[in-house]
Structures are given as structure tokens and as C-alpha cells.
Amino acid sequence: MRRFTVAALTAAATLGTVLAAAPAEAHGGRPALGLENCAANACHFDVPAGTYDVTVRLGGESAASTKVTGETRRTLLAETATEAGRPVFRSFTVNVRTPEGEPTGADGTPGLDLVIGGAAPALADIRVTPAKRARQIFLVGDSTVCDQPGDPYSGWGQQLPQYLRKGASVANYADSGESTVSYLADPRLWATVQPQIRRGDLVLIQLAHNDKQTDGATYRANLETLVAGVREKGGRPVLVTPIVRRWFNADGTLNNGTALLVNGLGVDHPAVTREVAAAGGVPLIDLTAKTKALVESLGTEGSKALYLYNEKRDNTHTSVHGATVYAGLVRDELVAQGLVPEGRTRVG
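The line above is the sequence of Rhamnogalacturonan acetylesterase; the predicted C-alpha cells follow.
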């Protein structure tokens, strides 16, 4: 498989995002970042860490349905149906980093790796170029947010990219098992994220599930430290209350400490998060309230599909379906609060 150099990538950036119908051609004597890097519904681009715009032309002579995932199982483009003979263009922006998934996990494969899937995948063309003026959305969180490395697990941050327009890239630094205490203490986590924040970047913070023995004053102070650290760099912090645990009462409600993330010391994590947001003028996504309403509306049986109850008897971690639904709730709030524009970019 032919691979690209950094010089070739820079030259290819001048191609723009509108693709011709013909296959990828040489540009300036150097190979374009195109289909020659794809085989058997997988594409590999030998590029350094950074942020890249990807534009695809989907469809063919027959009706098709195509989905694009990349790196550590991130959904970058939701399943897209195309009619026979009527190709469509879609674009997204992707963050390439090492480690490519959880910050304390394996490094993964260097470069950008994409998988072309779906019910009937049809990739007609592809271009990858360095992103210009991309806005990063950093995620600080735990296992319910992170890029989970293996099925059937998925964090909502892993599914968020499919909802965003080109020009907005998700840099998911959520990590399994982390509390506010450990996230601030581990140099691979907050000390790695904060220096990367640029003016205007969003930083979504959801930490609570593992603060089981964190007292209220410490939990509050840790959230305030994260908020201050984002603002110090010119970024925009967004506090996110934790997703509920699927732990029902006999009356079909989730009105209990296990479901609503009240820890063993009696600290009500969502309540403290709301208070910190209100006191500091920080945008808040009340994901606890939103997931509670959804889970209760689905009931004890219908809500199982959101979590890994059927597979693992797990009422904390989400399935791909659940993570996708919860990522949609996050996107809706980001749009409603004017933090990201609505809709995806369509090219052509």
C-alpha cells in the first residue's frame, strides 16, 4: 500500500474539499491523498499527529449505505444511504494522536486509519488534507465518555464526531477509571490536555463515576481547578453532569443514590456540578437529567439496550447504541446553547 509523506500532504491541501468524479490523481508531481491508500474497505494514511479534514464521495451504480469509523472505533460519519447512480459528498474533521484512544492505553497504529462499513458500503473517492482553523472539542471524562478499545463497549465521546460539522474535531482524552482526583494527578491526562487548548476551543468535563470516596469540598475544588485551567488557555469550559446508572426503583423511577451518582460520603455529584457551573458562569449540560428522563421513559426493559445489561449485566457502561443516543443529547445541548453550529457540512 502506497503511503504519503508530510510534504505530499501539505501539497494536497490546495486541492480543497470539492472532489472531482475521477479517481485521485497526482498533484504537483506528488500523489494525492486518495483512494490508492484504501483496500478492502480500509484506508491508511501515513500522516503525523494533527487534525485532518476528510471528504468522501459515497455511492455507485447500485443503492448503497455507508458508514465511516476511524482510529479507536470512533464513528466519524453516520450510516448514509445513497440512491443508485446518485453519489453524495460528506466531510468531517478528525483528530489523529498518540495514544489514539484512551490516554493511558496502547499507542495504537501511527497515522490515520479509516474503516468503510455499513449495510452496503460504497466509497467512490476520498481526500484527506490538513485541517485549517479547526476547532477542537476536548473531552475530559471517564469510561462512560472515552474511546473504548473493544466491543461491546462505547463511550458517548466515541460517538460524538458523527454529529459535528467539518471544522470541529473531537479530541477525546477521557480515560477509564478516572476521578477528578486521578485526572488532575496523572501527567498523561490533564497535564497533557491543558497545554493543547487554544482560544475558542471547547473542553467538556464529565467526571463523577469514580469519585466514590471524594469528599464534597475536594470534588468542588477539582472541578473549579479544571474550569480555571481551561480559561487560562482561552478555552471555553463546559461542565457535564454524569450519565445515570440504570438502577430502577420498584416504582420505575431512578430516584436513588446509585442511579443519580451520590457517592458513599453522600456527595451529590450532579448537584455539585450544577452549583459550580452556576457560580462560575460555566455552560452546563445536565446529562444526568436528560439520561434520567430517557431511561425512565423507556422503562426497565426498553432501557436495557442503552447499556450493556444484556451482554454484561452492566448498568453503568453504554452499548454503541446507547453511546450514540447519549452523544446526540450532548450535541443537541451544544447546539441549543450556541456552542457549535447545527448540522453537518455537505459538499457538492
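Note on the example: The chain has nine helices and 17 strands. The mean pLDDT is 90.
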